[in-house]
Amino acid sequence: MQLRKATMVDFDQIMDILKDGANQLAESGVNQWQGDYPSPDQIKEDIKNGWAYLAVSDDRETVGAISIVPAPDHAYDQLNGAWLTQTDKYLVIHRVAIHSKHAGNGYATKLLQAVITEIKDNHPEIDSLRIDTHEDNKAMQHLINKMGFKQVGTLHGVYRADETSYVYELVR
What's the pTM? Predict the structure, then answer.
C-alpha cells in the first residue's frame, strides 16, 4: 500500500470514495457521515493544506482516501478522558474510507499500517497518532484496536449534536 498526496485533480475521486463510505456506513446501520460531513469544502481544505492522501494498492489501483491532519485538532478540546501523552506533536487521522468495490481485501488494515509505518520511520518529531470514530462504527473500532491504538475517551456532540465518538491514541 502506498500513500499518494492528493491534488485538486483528485477532488472528485476523493468525494466519490467518501460518499461510497457514507453509503457503506448507512447500509450497516451506522449514523456516521450521514448529512453534510465530510463536506466538499472540508476536502478542498484537506487538499489545499496537503492533508489529503489517496490509498494506492500494490497493483496501482486507487482503493481509498485518508486525511492526516497536524495538531492542534480543536475537536479534541472537548475530550472526556485523558491522553496517553501530553504533547502538541501529534497527527490526527480523519476521513478514512476504502471504496466498496475494493472491500474485503484488507486494504483498511494496510492503509493504517502504511500511515503508522510512515510516521514511525520518517517523522521522529511526532509523539503520537490520534483518531476517533462513531460509537456505532464497530468495524472501525475493531481496526483501530487491531492497529494498537488505545481508547482514551469520548467526544459528545462535537461532530453532530446527538453523536458520541470514541477517541484513541497510539504513542510512538
Answer: 0.93
Question: Is residue 105 within 8 Å of 139, Cβ to Cβ?
Answer: no
Of the candidates 93, 92, 94, 100, which has an alpha carbon nearest to the alpha carbon of residue 26?
100
What is the three-class DSSP state of 118?
helix
**How many angstroms separate the CA atoms of 37 and 82, rounded?**
26
CA distance 164 to 167: 10
CA distance 167 to 76: 9
Per-residue pLDDT reduced to its tens digit, 110-149? 999 999 999 999 999 999 999 999 999 999 999 999 999 9
Nearest CA among 83, 79, 73, 28 for reference residue 46: 73
Joined together, the cell numbers standing for residue 84 give 496517553
Q: Provide the H-helix boundaries in 33-151.
A: 40-49, 107-122, 138-146
Beta bridge partners of 15: none
What span, in angstroms and rounded, lies between the C-alpha atoms of 119 and 127? 9
* Residue 105 CA from chain centroid, whole number: 18
